[in-house]
Write a structure and sequence with these properties.
By secondary structure, the protein is α/β, with parallel strands linked by helices. The protein is 47% helix and 21% strand.
Length: 247
């Protein structure tokens, strides 16, 4: 017997919704287009009823015994399902971990800038991981890094909790802070209010209000942090290039 050739397109397809003649089981439980239960009947009879009403027979629960099908407009059903998926994606909040790099020699001005950046990330609902890197003999004075991180915790304590306390990992000391529940609740309320206003605008036939582009603002902030980290690395190269003083 010849083997069927593998079709990669089949692997990409998810579960397919069976409709009309694709429903091959002999008996099904049927729900009318108005949501009322029509009971168990032969599939051919359900197809006839759907056809007489100019609608489709759609299998909505294939694992039930017998499978459950509903009489409806399949085109409208697919449109509504896609709309629900888009709404769910819009309301979904993704929590990222933003990393902020420090050095024991980070000056007060730079430390203040990076702490304000962390504050903004936390306000936006993201966790922040602070990483203090040690080079050369800096590792002999971890108390400097500990002082930096303790100061950062104090500056952010109104909106964030310490999730992972400062800990040494080889030549780095790390701290992780997460937004307080009140911050996350406030963000959820803001998203709900914005979505409500957007829906209202659409119903009234006017342009939806433009939401602040928070992600673009955070991306710009991350770029500024990367530039400062690059400058810090350049300073290290300069330090390494300086000859040792002769005794």
């Amino acid at each position: 017997m010849a083997m069927r050739r593998f079709d990669p397109r089949q692997a990409q397809r998810g579960p397919q919704t069976r409709i009309n003649q694709r429903i091959r089981v002999p008996e099904i439980r049927v729900i009318g287009e108005d949501g009322k239960m029509l009971g168990i009947m032969a599939t051919v009879d359900a197809l006839r009823i759907a056809g007489d009403r100019g609608l489709d027979l759609v299998e909505i629960d294939p694992k039930a015994a017998p499978p459950v099908c509903k009489i409806l407009d399949f085109g409208k059903y697919k449109y509504d399902e896609k709309k629900k998926a888009r709404e769910a994606k819009r309301k979904q909040s993704v929590v990222e971990i933003k990393e902020i790099k420090l050095r024991p020699k980070t000056d007060d001005h730079d430390l203040d800038f990076k702490t304000r950046a962390a504050h903004r990330f936390l306000e936006a609902g993201h966790k922040v991981k602070f990483t203090v890197r040690f080079r050369g003999r800096e590792i002999t004075h971890p108390e400097k890094a500990q002082e930096q991180l303790d100061w950062i915790v104090q500056q952010c304590e109104t909106i964030a909790n310490v999730e992972v306390r400062p800990v040494m990992e080889q030549r780095t000391m790390t701290l992780v802070m997460a937004p307080k529940p009140a911050v996350m609740q406030k963000l959820a309320q803001q998203r709900t209010a914005a979505e409500r206003e957007r829906q209202k605008a659409l119903q009234e036939g006017r342009a939806a209000p433009v939401a602040p582009n928070t992600e673009a603002e955070l991306e710009k902030l991350e770029q500024q942090l990367e530039e400062r980290d690059g400058d810090d690395d350049d300073d290290d190269d300069d330090d390494d290039a300086q000859p040792e003083a002769s005794g």
